[in-house]
Amino acid sequence: MQYKCTRNRTEAISAAQAIVQGISADGGLFVPECLPSYSMEQLKELGNSSYTGRAMRILKDFLPEFSEEEIRECVESAYSQKKFPGGAAPLVRLPDTNMAFLELWHGPTCAFKDMALQLLPHLLTKSLKKTNCDKTAVILVATSGDTGKAALEGFRDVPDTKILVFYPEKGVSAMQQRQMNTQEGNNVSVCAIEGNFDDAQTGVKKIFTNPEIKKALDENGMLFSSANSINWGRLLPQIVYYFSAYCDAAEQGMITLGQPLNVVVPTGNFGNILAAYYAKKMGLPIKKLICASNSNNVLTEFLSTGVYDRNRTFYTTISPSMDILVSSNLERLLFDLTGGNSDLVSGWMKELNTEGRYQVGEELTAVLKDLFYSGSCDDGKTRETIGKILTEKKYLCDTHTAVAADVYAQYAKDTGDTETPAVIVSTASPYKFADSVLEAVAPGNKQDADDFLKIEQLSSLTGTKAPAPIEELKEKQVRFQNRCQVEEMPKVVLRMAGL
Ligand SMILES: *Cc1c(COP(=O)(O)O)cnc(C)c1O
After folding, report:
1. Quick check: 219 and 204 in contact, CB under 8 A?
2. What is the whole-number distance in angstroms between the Cα of residue 495 and the centre of ligand 1?
3. Residue of minimum CA distance from atom 8 in ligand 1
4. Would you say the pTM of this structure is higher than 0.85?
5. Domains plus CATH for the chain?
6. How far is the CA of 318 from the centre of ligand 1 (A)?
7. Which of 162, 86, 149 is nearest to 118 (CA)?
């Protein structure tokens, strides 16, 4: 299987090259030239495997240059019991409903980014060897919180890699900052910047394309690589858990094999829900792809009208990992739905860049509306939903997951489809956003200023337990207190690379 680029007709590269390169030179994204498809018989076989078995089976189809043994090594180190003590992707059914939460946050950083970022470093180091590259990969990340920590944890002490994470000084939660600044490992660095997430992201992009820095790295046996969600190596692991959830839903008697499921995904950069779309195309019986946004509802509008317009107010919400106005992975969906029309896709992306807006035709809009249901949920409704699910169902969810749960309720009301069982993707532990969740659970309660006391409060109020990685943060030493201005980012990169 070869990989194509969304903005270029001719380019075709191997899976390993796509993973090493991350993004194409013209800014396009890599996509597989065709998708494997799975019969009911094969789904049944998947159902008999463990999570790692399911991952191995699906990855094999997308990574032809990898031997079965290599894929096994990657998958078994990524999803070990030690890394995911609560299971890689358990499906937790809500009592007396046909809804279940797919909990993707039992990894080392308590958010679903671990699902991809525990695997990516293994895929990347093997891909470097396959492309005859003996250089050390320098991973640069700009993060608004969850990605940075998950990438640090995924790459820590991985041979032949170094990782440097920039985060906006005032743009991450106290817990997220602590998670990053206490990061262990001999190849990791963390630096706060004086600016917002966009400044960090723009700074990193500039460094990636700075010819002088590139040359300096090259002469010293290094090259830049990206752990960003546009890397195919991050998307691929996400397809697996939709298949896994379907198998588990069948095993738990929510459905019989072959029956449709709805999936509901709290969405930001469109990576997670795109993986669900690919799974559907590969034969997984998914009925509707339900796209949930917070007040930054650019996708809600796009999926129902065909107009993508980023010229709108940016809201800082209590589901910060979804505070995003340019959903990069949407480009892959458009490429697929236009039958691989790179000219059309490049045109739209250019318009997005210059005008901040583009509109797809009527026909494509109709296809989008058929595949997706989209809705949004503001902070007030998010808090209300957390409280309601806890009271009625004794289940505590985080703010991102609550956005999805509310949009699912909107879907059920709008369409009357309450028959089809639904999987709601749960993307973070409630303890990762303890202050907002606490406010939702006990509105008006005076909160302690100390984050760890908030965690204790949440625990005693709800009878749940904080995941070990969050508990352990309390005892961890702060290792990084770096801070720089945006203009100084290149210097920080060179210093960290030892140049
Ligand atoms: C990143 C993230 C999301 C959004 O996922 P996308 O793949 O960017 O759509 C949702 N919830 C949490 C907790 C996240 O960290």
Report:
1. no
2. 31
3. 269
4. yes
5. 76-112+233-432 (3.40.50.1100)
6. 13
7. 149
- Among candidates 125, 176, 183, 114, which has minimal Cα distance to 150? 114
Q: What is the pLDDT of residues 106-130, one digit of tens each?
A: 999 999 999 999 999 999 999 999 9
Average pLDDT over residues 253-279: 97
Ligand 1 centre and the CA of 362: distance in Å?
A: 29
Q: 67-71: which pairs have CB atoms within 8 A and are 24 or more residues apart?
A: 70/126
What average pLDDT score do residues 93-117 get?
95
Report whether pLDDT(375) > 90: yes
Q: Residue 417, exposed/middle/buried by CB under 10 A (0-12, 13-18, 19+)? A: middle
The pair phi, psi for residue 30, each rounded to 5°, is -90, 140
pLDDT one-digit tens code per residue, 287-336: 999 999 999 999 999 999 999 999 999 898 999 999 989 888 999 999 99
Q: Which residues line ligand 1 (CB under 6 A)?
A: 111-113, 146, 229, 266-272, 321-322, 400, 427-428
Looking up tokens 């069948």, which residue turns up?
Answer: 250
Pocket test for ligand 1, best of 322, 374, 425, 470 (most atoms within 8 A of CB): 322
- CA 102 to chain centroid, in Å, comes to 14
Kindly report the backbone phi and psi dihedral angles of residue 61, in degrees, each rounded to the nearest multiple of 5, phi listed first. -70, -25
Residue nearest to atom 14 of ligand 1 (CA): 321
pLDDT at 105 over 90: yes
